[in-house]
Amino acid sequence: MTRALLLDLDDTIIVEEPAAVAAFAATARVAAERHPLNAKALALDARARAREIWRAAPHHAFCRRIGVSSWEGLFCRYEGDGDELAALRAWAPGYRREAWRRALAGQGVEDDALAEELGERFGADRRALHETFADAAPALDALAADHVLALVTNGASCWQREKLAASGLADRFAVVVVSGELGTAKPDPAVYTHALSALGAEPGDAVMAGDSLRNDVDGALAAGLAGAVWVNRDRRPCPDGWDARAGRLEVRDLAELCGLLATAPRSGSALPRC
């Protein structure tokens, strides 16, 4: 029997949303050096304006299908083959510029050159903030003693693989599944099925762990995995109807995940009974 563990990347192994928030703040501070404006408000507004443009874009349906967020779209390079990626590469510079132009205009600043500069700078600021959670490497090493590991992540292939490479942890995984390479994202059951097939594992011998209740817990259980673990680093309250007996468990970090899975039997259920 192959005991398989599927792991999410963003905000499970590497820091994603807090890094994006910090990058917005860093880019906005540059604008505040040029004009008398509120950098904190500009950072928040740039993110909101980016989301507004993103949702109205002709490529939104494709990006939603593969799990690319509006802030990732602001700095993703959209590398790879295919008409959709080529169209996004052509569209993205204007998107980056327009998000910051609208945010600046909200504070009465009309400076198209600065908007373009901020649009390009934001990607550099985000890439300067690559960070891996301190517990990730030791946890993966410990988990690999009893499990074959797969990384299962939503997003554009180039950006997800860039972050994984920056983490230095790519060699811990027997399989890496990126939604942008499949054309569909978690919680589509096809994503988990693809990962398990690549591992040579059965759903009943597999567990998924990640920070998203929708993608990493409920989606994995719906795909037939034996269990799913919510990696709740932010200590969010459990939602109404949370039921550990249904295969849903919670840990605060990856060190706790190691402890939880260490108690799992070597045959049968992949998670300890509650």
Task: Please tell me about this protein's structure.
By secondary structure, this protein is of the alpha/beta class. The protein has two domains: 4-15 and 132-262, HAD superfamily/HAD-like (Rossmann fold); 17-127, no CATH class. Helices cover 50% and strands 10% of the residues. The chain has helices at residues 17-32, 39-56, 60-66, 70-73, 83-105, 112-127, 136-143, 157-167, 179-182, 189-199, 213-222, 254-262, and strands at residues 4-7, 148-153, 175-178, 206-210, 227-231, 248-251. A six-stranded parallel sheet has the order 3-2-1-4-5-6, with helices on both faces.
The low-confidence runs, each spanning 5 or more residues with pLDDT under 50, are 266-270
Summed up, the helix count is 12
Give the CATH class of the largest domain.
Alpha Beta
How many distinct beta strands?
A: 6
For the largest sheet, list the strands in their spatial order. Answer: 3-2-1-4-5-6
Compute the number of structural domains: 2
Percent of residues in helices: 40-55%
Sheet with most strands:
6 strands, parallel
Briefly note the CATH topology name of the largest domain. Answer: Rossmann fold
CATH superfamily of the largest domain: HAD superfamily/HAD-like
The rounded distance between the terminal residues' Cα atoms is: 23 Å
Would you tell me the overall average pLDDT? 93
Estimate the global geometry from the Cα principal axes: elongated
What integer value in Å does the Rg equal? 20 Å
Report the CATH architecture of the largest domain: 3-Layer(aba) Sandwich
Question: What structural class do the secondary elements suggest?
Answer: alpha/beta
User: Which band does the percent of strand residues land in?
Assistant: 5-15%
